[in-house]
Amino acid sequence: MPTWTFVLDESSCRIGTNVCKCRVLQVEQKPHSEVMDTGPLKAELQSELRKLPWCSNPNCENFHGALRILLAQRDLSKSCSATFIHVRTHRIPAGPISLGMEETPKKLLILYATQTGNAVEAAERVGREAERRGCCPVHLLSMDRYDAGCLAQAEEGSRTVVIFVVSTTGQGVTPDSMKGFWNFLLRRNLSGQWLQGLHYAVFGLGDSGYQKFNYVAKRLDRRLLQLGATPIVERGLGDEQHPSGYEAVLDPWMTSLWNMLNEIHPNYYFPNGPEFFIPDDKVKEAQPKIRILYHEIDKLDSQFSATSDLNHQAALLHIERARKMSPGKFSSHDENKPDCFLKLVKNERLTKSSGSKDDKEVHHLEFEFVSPAIEYDVGDLLEVVPRQNPAAVDDFILRCNVDPESFITVHPLDAENQLPGACGIAAIKLKAFVELTMDVASASPRPYFFEVMHMFATDEHEKGILEHLVSPEGRTVLQKYIHKERMTVNDVLKKFPSVQIPFEWLVQVVPPLKPRAFSISSSPSAHPNQVHLTVTVASWRSPLGRNRAGLCSNWLARLDAKQEVYVPVWFRKGSLPPPPPSLPLILIGPGTGCAPFRGFVEERAIQSLNSTRTAPVMFFLGCRNKDKDFLYKDFWLSHSENGGILSEAKGGGFYVAFSRDDQSHNKVYVQHRMREHSKRVYDLLRHGGAAIYVAGSATKMPADVLSTFEEIIAKESGLPQESAVRCLKDIQDAGKYHVEAWS
């Protein structure tokens, strides 16, 4: 039976919203027929594709079904099978694609699943490193763009290799783009030999501040093994808590991967060996992924006009327009348009200053809705787009030698040649684009930024330094330079004045300006038209003595409520689901970890006033000093006395640990207070069925609190430690242990 293979380019699929944008790259018949000329068929299919409705997932069966109908109309499908291969033109090699049944195309497939964009960066880094070593064509795909059933096409003894790069967020949450792929792998009808012949490697990105560190990568690795696949190297587990970030693990992991891959398939993927590097003059021929069009404002339609006097709705669209054009991934969701603007009505410092460098600065901020209020729950997050320092933006634009007043549109390099208006993209001022999408003075650039700098350095001394920094030997120095010193894009560009990177490259490699997430510290029941935040102002000195400051927290702290300030925001679900009134709670909140629990207590107090039967709440708060940073002191005390929600009379309790007030200089933390009240904690857990909520710093605190609960269960129950660990795991499996941690 003849087999037809159709290669479809989906690079431009998301440009339009009404019709299919796929392009028929290749039509091939096996065995080849001298009678059938595939040229006219290719042209006819291309024409018919334009009549199909646009689909956000071209791999769906409806899409393939529509193509099969077209084949049936040509009487081709009555006695043949049809295979559809989806590619993106900038990810495939030049020239014809070999699709013969007799030979397997040589390729290295990298599949990634990301929630905030870090896994994409890591996957692209793996792909670049492979290509620099002369590897065969690298195919980079998001898991939601790949048919999981194709994994089983490898045969025993084949050279099929797949590299997986996946992230884990919060308490073991799977990225949205991986859920369909993962559900397919969990099918019961897949045997233990289903993936026999497939070689694979897994790299995970996670945060060791959470108990389920890199849970998604570990689970994927186990499942691939169960299905018969063979690992090339041990899975790599990157940790954002490491001083050098996930790259600290990624670099040695890649070295092992290339060496083992070459041992398994000698000189197949790396014809010149894994130590070979493509010469720099060849690397410089690389092209950016995006192109920028410049527009003359008087020739543009009114939709391109910009005004400084934007109303709120227009301003939201302005932000959306800029962020939609940017190639960067900004957040865990795909919405570029903020949900709304909030008006600042109060900005109060909660902590006292003693002039010491160790003083913490914490602010309480209150915002009001300026449009119909958006519904939110206690435990939700508010994502805020910070405003960059105008002077820093001006410095960047001046350094890049571009016109801040020019109007631009940004397009994928492989997009079809259309006028901006034809694809729904309106022009925006270059300066506004930088302000809204490119983090030039806060985030540290990734290693690829230095590789691009090396491409455009003209001074031999600077070029030599950059060459060392991007080499395997200099990678450690680069990581210290980036992470420990927290060097920004502006900092780095000033260090290498001969480097003049084209703006197209800068748009691609400068870190995106991501929203910052804050736990909402108010209850919508207690404050119907408001949202409250509790913000620690981040500032520190680097190892080399540079003063550093967090972009968003410092910007928020300096806002003046008297000046009619409006802030663009998104509302998001966090890791702390709102509890029902009847569920007993044990809350652990050191520092600003108390923020979400202020909302919890407010909500339960309202429920209690409304004659709703409410369960006890026990809260352990951690502060440094009673007189300096006892956050929301009056609020907590008012609810812990006279039969309040946090009172022992109601079965709960309020306990504070002041870590710096002990005269013996022994630091007292929340876990010490938990041990002091271990019997009450255990009773509420064992007999009350309480849920545990933990919020705060992601360094050691979550792990220490977990260990303390294990100790308490073992002590009060008389069970061995192993049984106590299992009891706590049962609580977690029942969905009653929640952690919200941040760096």
Task: List the topology elements.
Elements: E1 3-9, E2 23-30, H1 38-49, H2 61-73, E3 81-87, E4 108-113, H3 118-132, E5 138-142, E6 161-167, H4 179-185, E7 199-206, H5 215-226, E8 230-231, E9 236-239, H6 247-264, H7 280-283, E10 290-295, H8 312-325, E11 340-349, E12 362-369, E13 381-384, H9 390-400, E14 407-412, E15 428-429, H10 430-437, H11 447-456, H12 460-469, H13 475-484, H14 489-495, H15 503-509, E16 516-519, E17 530-536, E18 539-541, E19 547-549, H16 551-557, E20 566-572, E21 585-590, H17 595-609, E22 617-623, H18 633-640, E23 653-658, H19 670-676, H20 678-686, E24 691-697, H21 701-717, H22 721-733, E25 737-742
Parallel strand pairs: 1-3, 4-5, 4-6, 6-7, 7-8, 7-9, 21-22, 21-24, 22-23, 24-25
Antiparallel strand pairs: 1-2, 10-14, 11-12, 11-20, 12-17, 13-16, 13-20, 14-15, 18-19
Helix pairs in contact: 3-6, 9-14, 11-12, 19-21, 20-21, 21-22
